[in-house]
Amino acid sequence: MFSIRALPGKRLTPVAIACLTGLASLATAGAAGAHAAEEPLTWRKCAQAAKNWPVAGDTRTECSTLTVPMDYANPQGRKIKIAVSRIKATDPGRRRGVLVISPGGPGVTNIDAPATYAAGGLGTLAADHDLIGFDPRGVGYSDKIKCDWGDPPPATSATSPKAQARAAFDQDAAYNKRCAAKDPGFVRQLTTTNIARDVDAIRAALGESKINFYGVSFGTAVGLNYRSLFDDRVNAMWVDSVMPPVIDLAAMDASADALNERRFTAFVPWLARHDTEYHFGTTDAMVRKTIFTLRDKLHRKPRKIDENTVINGEWVSQLLGGGPGSWVSSARDLATVREGGVPLSASPGPGPAKTFGFDDTSLGLNLIQYQAIFCNEGVGGRDFEQMWAAAQARKTAFPATGGYFERSGWCGQWPWPARPWKPVRGTSPLQLSGHLDEDVTPYAWAVEAWKAVGGTLLTVQDGAHASLRRLPCASKVIDFFRTGRTATGTCPGA
């Protein structure tokens, strides 16, 4: 999942953690998919068809567009176009069908996935599978709307943490109201379930009775929705770094806080062992006291760095929940702030990118699609006081890292109620893999999804989001798609 706040961040904050309408009947969805497939795909080399094609030197990938219903409940109504890509199997005599790749999001392009995966650890599958990519509705080269975030309000050190959070929430709410009003019919149909239906329209347009599917991060939600709707059209599906089975924004935040608190518990003795470098104390108790004193001081008196950046207590909490790979930079930045300096991580991230068709030049974050996925389908995020109370409860439960307010989706002023989805258990071959210590899609989400939808769960022993295809254990993925053999137990990580 691409998160945009303390996950992948609208403000691209340094901490990362980490979607879906009610399921329509299989008969209705299937009929809509068949209707959408009436238009044949016409292929051209992506490097020629797509302006600013993102894969340098790529001569293999072909691109096309597919017309689908905007609203599958009204298949004869307004149509939209979905951008599709493929790399045909290099050994047609051994071809096993298509492998649809959905590598993440929401809000970001996926169309370069065939080229990216053909060049990586799963590249051998390109010999006997057509690799299929696509830009989900609302992003990249597919139909979308553009709605800029606009200038943020000036940072201030004079208000309370709650007042600052309220101001940020209200800015999000104004964005939601303004951007959803640009094209309400389209924005309402930006859902993971509809993206899954678009995948089935792609399947039909390709002339395939079944697909193989490899999903990563938010792509796992697309895959599990697809399997819930079209179980009999799945040959085999692997999902890595798995989204939770139900999008409950408060529960997602709690999962992230629990993981980060465990990481902090390991960070403390490391700081004590490196006291000669960072001077936080030589015992766990001393380190905790020094850090919490610094955080409380910044809560009481935030430090304004520039017009858009303030160092406050929440900034400290974000640094405390990083994995071992971040400890050196976190310790350095905390020590710098303690001494009155400006840390490297204080610089503000870029705002959301603008983003029609293959003539568009921008493939950056489409923020309104990101918001729509979470707000059309996710529970929570609409009431500031409820969100603030939940954040304070997490702060009590997880005193070092809990209660960070800018994490999962904010849906203030979203014009429609949430229509959550609930995955359905199927019978088609399903393999899940979760990463034990990652924070973008915490391992607990993979366990929840496994319990909800079945299949087989493989545990990857690392904290690296979506790393499986780059590991030696990628051989298990290849074996699964060629033989159907599933994998249990553990896999060495990065």
Automatic annotation (TrEMBL):
Q: Which region is the signal sequence?
A: 1-36
Keywords, ordered alphabetically: Hydrolase, Signal
Keyword Disulfide bond appears in the UniProt entry: no
Peptidase S33 tripeptidyl aminopeptidase-like C-terminal domain mapped to chain residues: 408-486
Q: Name one Pfam family in it.
A: Abhydrolase_4
* Keyword Aminoacyl-tRNA synthetase included in the entry's annotation: no
| A Gene Ontology molecular function term of the record | hydrolase activity
What sections of the sequence does the record tag as coiled-coil?
none
**Span of domain AB hydrolase-1:** 98-279
Q: Membrane-spanning regions, if any?
A: none
Similarity section: Belongs to the peptidase S33 family.
Q: What is this protein called?
A: Alpha/beta fold hydrolase
Species, as recorded: Streptosporangium jomthongense
